[in-house]
Amino acid sequence: MSDNFKSILFTIVLCTVASLLLTLAASRLKPLQEKNALVNKEANILMAAGYIGSVQPPAEKIREIFKEKIIPANSKENPDLELYLTYADSGEISGYIVPFESSGLWGRIYGYIALENDGITISGVSIYQHQETPGLGAEIDKRPFLDNYTNKKIIDKNNNFKGVMVAKGRVADSISISERDHYVDGISGATLTGRFLGEGMIETLEKYEPISKKFRNNNIDFNTDNTTKKQLKGEP
Amino acid sequence: MKLLNNQYIKTMLEPIIGNNPINVQMLGICSALAVTVQLKTAIVMGLALTFVITFSNLVVSIFRKLVPDSIRIIFELCVIATLVILADEFLKAYLFGISKQLSVFVGLIITNCLVMGRAETFALGSTPGLSLMDGFGNGLGYSFVLIFVAFVRELFGSGSLFGYKVIPEFLYNAGYTDMGFMLLAPAAFIIIGLLVWLQNSLFKSQ
């Protein structure tokens, strides 16, 4: 009986001490961790928009560029859709960035798609989280693959939505000329990853079609944080 | 020579070469396969494990006479899990990029047989000082193997070390290509297998 009591007492003390330690560590480190997650997100938005390359500058620099270049916004009709705007030096909206989420071979894939202000052309893509096979599917977050997306079109000449799929092998070998704007080169050995990624992107882009249409019709009226926008335009 | 005969130093050095945790004890192989694609991740993983195993050995050894025998495994696991979560939280706060690449493998140190194995077989029966050195030595032994495997894999798999290209461009132009196979887990298996062979032929034959 006393043995049992001793075991229970020991366990209680042990658990209390361990949980106190962990609580202390978690609460002290939380601000730093949250900042890291935020910087990571901002870095990926900047990467999609082409402001930084695959080599990440230090955290402060990322925050600075993000503040200067990217404006979070939303549209009146679809206030739930996360959206970021980029501005040209003239103060005009130069493009928009949307987050995407896709199935993958082993887990979800997360990233950002940057589009130009014509609402048609993709200017860049970044992927920040995935669990694809290293050396094969995992190549999707590397520059050589992502650079393929630049200048691809999400609608065809008749204004029908097409999105961008990943071809099996090279686009030049397998896709007819009229379709090449809607395909990027695939990675050999990662056909399934490519298929999932293409489908996931189309799903996201379809969801954002109302916003893309506004850009196409030049009917741009987004709610943004006005003060930052004015500063950007150089107004008082 | 007197230094080498010191019991503490001996305890620490033994697992680095003679009784290496991966090559001889065959423990911790799973993580050695997973995190050795790049040198950076391998080093951080080695540090995290060394931290965990050193202090888990120390704590388990300090309380070895106090712990009721019936719950000693629970006690060991609790100590190890606490240390692992601490290490994980620190990595997330200070080395975010690397912690993202290591993903679940820092958390999986908890289930690394190496940590539990040393606590069970060594720390429960030895003084805190010796246990500390044993844990530290095993951590280093593990780290060295990890770093060696990562060195080979990153060099031949991506042509770089610590993320910097070291294979010159003209070799690529002349037709050299990186070995994609090195980036996959089976490559680590083969390298570790060769290491075990080397170790056996060097030290076991006497």
Radius of gyration of chain B: 19 Å
Class by helix and strand content of chain B? Answer: mainly alpha
**Could you tell me which chain pair has the largest interface and how many residues each side has?**
A-B, 26 and 27 residues
Main beta-sheet annotation of chain B: 2 strands, antiparallel
Shape of chain A: globular
Per DSSP, the total helix count of chain B is: 11
Beta-strand portion of chain B reads under 5%
String of helices and strands of chain B: HHHHHHHHHEEHH
Q: List unreliable stretches of 5+ residues of chain B.
A: none
N-to-C CA distance of chain A:
79 Å
Radius of gyration of chain A, in angstroms, nearest whole number:
23 Å
Features:
heterodimer; A: 236 residues; alpha+beta; six-stranded antiparallel sheet; two-stranded parallel sheet; 8 strands; globular; disordered C terminus; B: 206 residues; mainly alpha; two-stranded antiparallel ribbon
Q: Could you walk me through the main structural features you see in this protein, from its secondary elements to its overall organization?
A:
The complex is a heterodimer of chains A (236) and B (206). Chain A has 236 residues and is of the alpha+beta class. Chain A has helices at residues 2-49, 59-69, 143-146, 171-174, 191-207, 209-216, 226-233, and strands at residues 70-75, 83-87, 93-102, 109-116, 122-129, 165-166, 183-184, 222-224. Chain A has a six-stranded antiparallel β-sheet. In chain A, helix 1 crosses helix 2. Mean pLDDT of chain A is 83; it is low at 227-236. The mean pLDDT of chain B is 84. Chain B is globular. In chain B, 68% of the residues lie in helices and 2% in strands. The longest helix of chain B has 31 residues, at 128-158. Chain B has a two-stranded antiparallel sheet. Chain B has eleven helices and two strands. The interface between A and B is medium-sized, with 26 and 27 residues.
